[in-house]
Amino acid sequence: SHKNEHDMMDHSTMNMENDHASHTNPIALNDSTGQNEIALPSIIEPQNGLVNITAQQGETEIFDGFQTMTYGYNGSFLGPVIKIKSGENVTLRTKNDLLEPTTFHWHGLDIPGDGDGGPHQILKQGQSVDVNFTVNQGASTLWFHPHPEGATAEQVYKGLAGLIYIEDDNSLKLNLPNDYGKNDFPLIFQDRHFTDEKQFDYNAVQNADGTIGNTLLVNGTFNPKLTVGRERIRLRLLNGSNARNYTFKLNTGDAFQQIATDGGFLNKSIELHEITLTPGERAEIIIDFSKFDAESDVALVNEENIRLLPFKIEHPKSSSTAIAEVLNDYMVTEEEKSLPVTKQLELFGMGKMVTINNQQFDMHRIDFTQKLGETEIWEVYNKPDTMGGMIHPFHIHGTQFKVVSIDGEDPAASLQGWKDTISIEPNQTVKLAVKFNNKGIYMFHCHLLEHEENGMMGQVEVK
Ligand code: C2O
Ligand code: CU
């Protein structure tokens, strides 16, 4: 169709201009008109330690008057927030009601390898399995999504993604906004391409570096807006896109506070004017709306000033008290800084020719082993090619790591916290302090989902 040709042209233009290394994306998003109040996932908590999660297919009215074929967990589209507590023993009862195989991967969760939901843990249609673990990490916003070899990207695209909130004793004492749906909101950013009949058009963009769409959904809502009060509002941002990067800013130019990285709170909130999240990454931010009023035009925009999420400001001003000065006790120790590099990884390539240490993924090959509970330094280098190369968001399963250095320097303040996915620019070298608290086989890969599908993935066995 005409649309396809247009997209392919956009992509080849991108290649010629060598835009890969920048934060710009090959196809622009449409501005949100703010027509629809954003959907909020329901929250589920363990009942007697048990949480049921079923992957299913259904239909969702994303656009007025159209039914889109979608995938979801416990519903037709996306998934609930699974809320669990540090120290709690939890059984996740997973079931596959799709008409194809899937897996349940808990992105960012410290979980035994056989429950991690990587490509080895396939559930066929109708199958069910229990995953039991004890929550042994701090307050954080994690997520879950499928991971079957060859179908991860498309299943996520159709709607399989949900959030996990971990709470701990600390998080409840910090005076952070935590009234769900009032001053504490999850925001899942995903760009999509739709056919004229408003069906997901996964193959519309023949872009092996990842599927980029022109239509933004936030929590699955098209043309979203978020109604907020005149108070401090906490936003838990997830880049749940297959391949698009977002640099989030306020259209007013105002600053906001970042309070958390992928895997927990920063030690202190930091003031930022923008934050970039690559696929798989999360951040929690606080925006102070008390200085705005009902007439203010406030929106989250991206690096191209496209309106991602306009805010509707309502309700009288409420007096929000100051958030705690100290949020966490994260640190990279001197010992960790002085450890030798014991694993080296070289990310290379674009499109279908993507490799880690010159190899593509092989489910029958273990690339590394690591001892349980031992910290090792992984040095990950993004090797540029003659065209400059591109950003790869590097993710490790089953753990949260520390960023020790980037090109030999301390990481930026917004990376001084627990991470499970790190954006690596061409020619950058990052050193990560990696420790696993459970045994098993874990994936590490580029979180551009089409790069992962194309083999930019390896396996570490923890013994
Ligand atoms: Cu979001 Cu292999 O992970
Ligand atoms: Cu990549």
UniProtKB/TrEMBL annotation:
<feature type="domain" description="Plastocyanin-like">
    <location>
        <begin position="57"/>
        <end position="170"/>
    </location>
</feature>
<dbReference type="Pfam" id="PF07732">
    <property type="entry name" value="Cu-oxidase_3"/>
</dbReference>
<dbReference type="GO" id="GO:0016491">
    <property type="term" value="F:oxidoreductase activity"/>
</dbReference>
<keyword id="KW-0560">Oxidoreductase</keyword>
<dbReference type="InterPro" id="IPR008972">
    <property type="entry name" value="Cupredoxin"/>
</dbReference>
<feature type="domain" description="Plastocyanin-like">
    <location>
        <begin position="339"/>
        <end position="463"/>
    </location>
</feature>
<comment type="similarity">
    <text>Belongs to the multicopper oxidase family.</text>
</comment>
<protein>
    <submittedName>
        <fullName>Multicopper oxidase domain-containing protein</fullName>
    </submittedName>
</protein>
<dbReference type="Pfam" id="PF07731">
    <property type="entry name" value="Cu-oxidase_2"/>
</dbReference>
<dbReference type="InterPro" id="IPR002355">
    <property type="entry name" value="Cu_oxidase_Cu_BS"/>
</dbReference>
<keyword id="KW-0479">Metal-binding</keyword>
<dbReference type="InterPro" id="IPR011707">
    <property type="entry name" value="Cu-oxidase-like_N"/>
</dbReference>
<dbReference type="InterPro" id="IPR045087">
    <property type="entry name" value="Cu-oxidase_fam"/>
</dbReference>
<dbReference type="GO" id="GO:0005507">
    <property type="term" value="F:copper ion binding"/>
</dbReference>
<dbReference type="InterPro" id="IPR011706">
    <property type="entry name" value="Cu-oxidase_C"/>
</dbReference>
